[in-house]
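Researcher: Next entry in the queue.
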Amino acid sequence: MDIPIEVQLLNDGLKILWADEKQCVYPYKYLRSQCGCASCVEEMTGKKLLNISSIPEDIIIVDYFEVGKYALQFLWSDGHSTGIYPYKILRKMSQTDKSVLCG
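Model: Structure for this entry, 103 residues:
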C-alpha cells in the first residue's frame, strides 16, 4: 500500500512524499475538485455535483487529518470537510493526472 512519509501544506498545494521517495504537489483547486463525498458526487450514479467554477481560485487546505492508515481528510477554506481522499486514489492521481506535479 502507498503510504505518505510526509504531508506538507504549501502556498500552492499539498505536498506528499511517498514511501518510494517520489514527491508530488497536488494543487489545491484540483484536489478540491476531486472530492468524492456525497455532497460532491451523486452516490448512485457517480455524477459530479460539485460545479468546478464554484471553487474559489484561492482555495486552500486549512488543516488535514489522517483517517486510519488509508486516507486523508481535509478542512478546506470554503468550509467543506466531508471528503476522504484514500492514499490509493491520491497515488493514482499522481500517476495519471498532469495537474499533479511529481519529481
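Model: The first helix runs from residue 28 to 33.
Researcher: Noted, moving on.
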